[in-house]
Every structure is written in C-alpha cells, then in structure tokens.
C-alpha cells in the first residue's frame, strides 16, 4: 500500500523471539485463543518497518478497537469457521500464521511456497471451502492454496491443487489465471453460495480501476465486470486501494475498507452499487488486510417493500405489472419505547431500508409523515385515494397479518430483517345514479316471481327506461386495479355491491339465487356479491317519485381486496307524482263476512270499482260495484272505500278490484284472499284504536310495520313467537295508518287502521 501510517498503539500482547526452521511449526510464548463468530470485522495493519497490529471494527459505526500488537508483520488474512482462528502470512518470513483473539500466533512453514515474484509480499488472502487458505501477491501471475484443516493429515499445511481435487501440489507450484494474466488487487472474500472469490480492483490500477472481479479457484477463471463499482462517493474518496474486504451472511453483498478515507462501503454484487456505511473516526490504515466471520452479520439492516396489492391476499405485487407506489411515503422504524429510531423514504418501486440498526425489537409504521428520530411515532397514513391491504414480516406472497393498518408486526433484529412488507391499493368508487322516468315505467304488476306490494308500484333495475348511463340502471363503479374505466365495475363483472340505506318510500327485492328476497338494512348493509342487474326490483310507494320524495337508496362497492367505497345515491324521479290506483287493498273477516277495504291517493276519469270474487283465483264473478268518490275533475287526495261480502267462498275466497275509467278502460288490482273455517286470518283490533292495537292470527315470525300515508315507517317490530301481538300506539297522532305484516317467505299483508283518541 502507498498510504502513510497513521500511528499505532504500544500494547504488546504476545512477543518472543522466534527461531525459523524450514518445514517446522513454532508456537509463541502465549497460545492463541479462538475468536467468537461475531458482528466484528478484523484488520491487521502497520507501517512497513515494524510488526502489525490487530484491530476489530464495528462496521456500522466505523469505531475501531485495539486487540493487540502481533509479534509479526502479517497480511493475506482470512477467517476460518472450522476453528474460529484468523489465518494469514508472515510477510517477512513467508510463513503461514494462525492468529488468536488474544493477538497470539503460531507460525507454520509451508514447503514449496515460493517468495512473491512481483510484489514484496503476499497481500491477498482468504480462507475458503473446507479449510483452505488462498494466497496471492498483487500483480502476480500465480496463486497458491494451503490446506489448513488438520483433519487431512496427508496435506495439512502443504500446498494443494484446487484444480485437481486438492491433491498435493506439484511443480510448477500454484496456478495461473484464465481470463487475465494478473490482478491489481489488495484483498478478496469468498462467497460460499457460488464458490467464487470477490473483490474490487484497486483504485490506483491503470486498467479496470473500481471494477468488481471474481475468481474461481477450481477452474482458474477470472471475470471482471464491464462496469465499475460506483455510489456513496467511493470513486471520489479512495484513489489508492481497498486493503481490507469483508463478508457476512447478507446475500450478494461484501464490504470494503477504503485505505485513505477509512470508510466502510457495502457493495451489492448484483448491481455493483456501493453504499457508504460508516467512516472510521481513526481514519485510514496502511498495509492493512481484513477478515470476518462469514456466518455473522457485520451491519444489521432492516428493509422491506410496499407492494401495490389490490387483491388483499398474501402481501405481494398483485397488479400483474411492475410494482409502483405513490410518492410521499415514509417508513418509520419504531423502538419499544414508541419513539422513532430511523426514517427511510419509500422509493417509486416500493423499497425502503435502514442500515446500522442495533439489536432489539422494532416495528415499522408506514406514513406520509417523515418522523423525527427520538420523538413519538407518527400515525400511519397514506396518500389520498389509497388504502392498506395488509402487512407481513416475511418473503413476498407468503402471508398477511391483520389488521391492515399500516403498522408491521414486531420483529427482532439479530439477523437482517429484509422482508418487512406492506400492501396498499386504491379503493373503489361507486357511481352516483339519478334517473327521471315516465310514469308508465312503473307498474303495479312486478316481474314474475316478485311479490306485489299493496300501495307500491315497481320497476326492474334492468328497465330500458333507466337511461343516461352506459350501464343503464345497474349499480356501477370503478376501481383502479379491478376495473379502472368509469362504470366498468357493474353487472356481470363479479363485483360486490352493498345496499347501505333505503328511502322510506322505497322497498327493494333481490334474487340471490333461490327467489326474490326482501332487502332489509335495519341490521346493517346488505351485500350483493356478483351483482346481476336483472335480479334487482325497485318498489316505490304511491305518491312518491317527486324531487321531495324520490324513490331510491344508497349503496357502496367492495373490491376484490375487501376495500369498500364511499356511499353513492341511487334515485328515481317520475315525470309527475307516480300515478297510483291503490294505496291499499286489504281484506278482513268478521262473523263470516269478508270486509274489503281499499284506498286511492289520486283518481282521474275514474268511474268506479267492480268487485270480483273467485273460489280458485281463475274464474271470476262480479259481486258488486262501488262508484268513484272523486269529483268529475278527479281527486288528488286520499279516498277510502269499504265493501262487505256477506257470502264469501269457503274455505278460501279470492277477491280483486276491476278499476274502470269513464271511457271503459280498466285495470285489475292484485288478488287478495281470505280463509275461513279452521284457518285464521291476521287482523288488527280494535279499529279505530286509541292507545293499543292488537294483531290476532300471527304464526310467530312476522315482521310488523306501521306506516304513515307517505310510506314512512313509524313503528317496527318482530313477533316473538306468539299468535298475537299488542302494539303501543299511544304516541301516534290521530289519523289513518297502514299496518304491514311481512312473512318469512316474502309475502305480506297490509291493512288500514285508524288511530283515534
């Protein structure tokens, strides 16, 4: 090395005068003790005129600690995991030395090991494989391998040939390189994962400076990368050499010591990128060489990836495209005290990382806030339009830890924590829907299999009258990952929609596969997976459909990751208040008489009502006529009618109303049935009622509602298994109400009741 010496301590750990005899091994006065495989890097250094000093370094901080002065000038060192000693070369005697943690050494003569032919001494060494010491001298044309494993007595402490199964070497000793004649280098490390030595060509080299190289000791092949190692100021800060090179268990990584700066750089063997880890407070070093336990961890690091993960399964990039995440995200490393230890920005591809982290327990908080070390952790947060889908400590696509809140599970740093991963995605958006339809779009006769609700008219969500949107009357929305274009999440796309709230003038039925089901949101939103627009029917109460009383509901959309959008409204207005023939049509029995009651909210050109009866709902007979109570100009107010049939059919009597206009046109009401003999009929009494209303003839599982004339629910309860139910109506104002009894099969019965004090 060409660097001036920066001084050396005076401690002498083990020194005696040595007698050198070729082919003999010598122990010094103090026997060497083994090292512990730890997170320390070891270095020998010293001036050209005296023995070397052994130091340890904390690579994460650059702090150097004196171990002791060696009783020899040493270089070409490597760490043996077989015995936890450092092996190297006494450059003054050309002998192999074994160095202990107490700075004591033993010296071994190696037969046939020649003196360096180009440089003054061997300066490159590393222990590799099952106990072999690689030796090389800068710019030389041959390298040598010494067996340092005492289990092989026949070759122990002798030159062996790695190109020939490590048999005893023969003249000409050593091996030449293939791919280059020589290398201008100062140190190497061995990667057991691929069986190659790695290093960096010296900065002072006339050719290939700063380039990474590999040596295969078995095939003799040398490979020099076409690009140089760059980053962290490595090419600006070091112009001479990298005397010490270290390796640990971090994949695809080695560390170099820059002689002049005294800086430790981490080199990525995949990208040739260098990162400055630390700078030694004691500065650079001269005539140095390094070794480390390859099973240790020199620099503890924490890293992870924020994945664009719309499917919310195992945390990974589930987009099918290169991983990209929004800007403005920070990974905050949090200690056990709840304070920020370090902060790292998340780059555009989702990666973040921390270096030089002390051992201990930590977690990471993903936030748009760049926390301040030493202060309390910021709250987890994401840029607008993004949501968390999961966190997992482990390789990509191997798990997901709930809840998805932007806070990683706690982990312990004792080894590198390289997979503290997060999943995020952009949540869906449900579309606002507002329709104006002609009055005739609604019908008192719903689609087949859907129930007819007294006082309501219906429209299918698939009706051609629901226009103005590419998706027609379908619930719809968009999701950046599942269906990015506006409205493309809709019927038939596997999308889940949720009915959140329903207007008081509206009722909904949906066929989930076993027939139409009443949508009841009193217990919370109702989810409709794999939505099909043809299965949704919307009912509007008579007189609604105006801007002040629209028919409609609110809904949301849930994407495949389980994220739910904000709610959106779905409203339908008619061109005029929805034409209604009947507000109600109910039948009761009393003393064997069938009592028919019905009401209208508006009538125009109405002549009256023919009352028809049947015993089988197929053949009908007119049994009476009720003239319209409206004036010739029509009526826009409620009109109530009553008809008594003293001779109903038994056991069942069916009734319908034929609503006849003055011009002879007519329409039919829904069919009502009353049962006599042993059957019971649900009916309320007394009617009118003052404070309490009792309903007889229940079977134990009905849902009971009392509605006002606008269809608003005022009282709602469920029968608790009895055949009658008494309701407290004391708080209701005097007037007419509709009592509606909903059966488990979806059918319902409604009757008018009067509240009167």
Automatic annotation (TrEMBL):
InterPro entries noted in UniProt: DUF6923, Ig-like_fold, Secre_tail
TM ranges: 12-29
Species: Dyadobacter fermentans (strain ATCC 700827 / DSM 18053 / CIP 107007 / KCTC 52180 / NS114)
Keyword vocabulary terms for this entry: Membrane, Transmembrane, Transmembrane helix
Name of the protein in question: Uncharacterized protein
Gene3D superfamilies to which the protein is assigned, alphabetical: Immunoglobulins
Domain of life: Bacteria
Limits of the Secretion system C-terminal sorting domain: 685-754
DUF6923 domain span: 48-295
Pfam families noted in UniProt: DUF6923 (PF21959), Por_Secre_tail (PF18962)
């Amino acid at each position: 090395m060409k660097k001036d010496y920066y001084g050396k301590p005076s401690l002498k750990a083990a020194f005696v005068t040595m007698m050198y005899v070729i082919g003999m091994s010598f122990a010094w006065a103090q026997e060497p003790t083994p090292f512990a495989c730890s997170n320390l890097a070891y270095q020998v250094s010293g001036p050209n005129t005296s023995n070397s000093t052994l130091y340890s370094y904390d690579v994460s901080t650059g702090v150097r600690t004196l171990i002791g002065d060696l009783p020899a000038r040493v270089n070409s060192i490597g760490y043996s995991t077989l015995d936890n000693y450092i092996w190297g070369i006494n450059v003054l005697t050309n002998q192999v030395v074994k160095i202990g943690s107490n700075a004591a050494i033993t010296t071994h003569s190696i037969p046939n090991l020649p003196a360096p032919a180009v440089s003054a001494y061997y300066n490159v060494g590393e222990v590799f494989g099952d106990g072999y010491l690689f030796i090389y001298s800068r710019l030389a044309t041959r390298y040598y391998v010494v067996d340092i494993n005492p289990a092989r007595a026949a070759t122990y402490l002798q030159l062996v040939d790695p190109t020939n199964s490590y048999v005893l070497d023969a003249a000409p000793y050593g091996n030449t390189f293939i791919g280059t004649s020589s290398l201008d280098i100062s140190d190497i490390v061995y990667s057991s994962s691929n069986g190659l030595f790695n290093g960096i060509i010296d900065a002072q080299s006339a050719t290939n400076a700063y380039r990474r190289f590999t040596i295969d000791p078995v095939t003799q092949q040398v490979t020099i990368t076409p690009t140089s190692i760059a980053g962290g100021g490595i090419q600006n800060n070091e112009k001479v050499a990298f005397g010490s090179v270290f390796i640990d268990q971090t994949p695809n990584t080695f560390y170099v010591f820059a002689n002049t700066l005294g800086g430790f750089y981490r080199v990525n063997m995949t990208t040739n990128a260098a990162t400055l880890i630390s700078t030694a407070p004691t500065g650079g070093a001269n005539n140095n060489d390094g070794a480390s336990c390859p099973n240790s961890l020199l620099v503890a690091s924490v890293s992870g990836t924020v994945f664009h993960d719309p499917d919310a399964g195992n945390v990974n990039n589930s987009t099918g495209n290169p991983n990209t995440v929004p800007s403005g995200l920070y990974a905050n490393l949090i200690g056990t005290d709840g304070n920020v230890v370090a902060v790292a920005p998340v780059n555009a591809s989702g990666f973040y990382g921390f270096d030089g982290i002390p051992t201990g327990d930590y977690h990471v908080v993903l936030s748009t806030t760049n926390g301040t070390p030493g202060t309390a952790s910021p709250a987890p947060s994401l840029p607008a339009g993004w949501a968390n889908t999961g966190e997992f400590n482990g390789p990509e696509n191997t798990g997901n830890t709930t809840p998805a809140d932007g806070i990683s599970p706690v982990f312990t740093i004792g080894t590198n924590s390289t997979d503290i991963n997060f999943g995020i995605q952009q949540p869906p958006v449900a579309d606002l829907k507002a329709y104006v339809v002609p009055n005739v779009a609604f019908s008192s006769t719903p689609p087949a299999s859907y129930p007819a609700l007294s006082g309501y008219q219906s429209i299918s969500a698939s009706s051609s009258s629901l226009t103005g949107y590419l998706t027609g009357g379908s619930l719809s929305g968009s999701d950046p990952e599942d269906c990015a274009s506006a409205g493309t999440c809709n019927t038939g796309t596997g999308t889940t929609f949720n009915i959140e709230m329903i207007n008081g003038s509206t009722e909904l039925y949906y066929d989930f596969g076993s027939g139409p089901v009443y949508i009841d949101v009193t217990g919370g939103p109702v989810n409709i997976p794999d939505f099909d627009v043809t299965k949704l029917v919307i009912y509007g109460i008579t007189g609604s459909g105006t801007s002040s009383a629209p028919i409609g509901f609110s809904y949301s959309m849930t994407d495949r990751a389980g994220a739910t959008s904000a709610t959106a409204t779905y409203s339908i207005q008619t061109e005029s208040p929805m034409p209604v023939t009947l507000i109600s049509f109910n039948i009761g029995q009393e003393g064997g008489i069938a009592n028919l009651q019905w009401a209208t909210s508006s009538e125009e050109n109405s002549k009256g009502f023919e009352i028809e009866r049947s015993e089988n709902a197929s053949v009908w007979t007119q049994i009476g006529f009720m003239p319209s109570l409206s004036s010739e100009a029509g009526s826009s107010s409620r009109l109530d009618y009553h008809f008594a049939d003293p001779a109903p059919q038994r056991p069942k009597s069916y009734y319908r109303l034929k609503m006849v206009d003055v011009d002879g046109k007519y329409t039919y009401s829904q069919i009502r049935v009353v049962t006599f003999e042993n059957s019971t009929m649900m009916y309320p009494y007394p009617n009118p009622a003052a404070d309490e209303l009792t309903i007889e003839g229940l079977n134990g599982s009905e849902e009971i509602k009392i509605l006002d004339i606008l269809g608003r629910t005022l009282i709602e309860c469920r029968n608790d298994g009895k055949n009658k139910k008494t309701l407290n109506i004391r708080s209701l104002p005097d007037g007419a109400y509709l009592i509606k009894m909903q059966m488990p099969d979806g059918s319902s019965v409604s009757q008018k009741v009067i509240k009167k004090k």
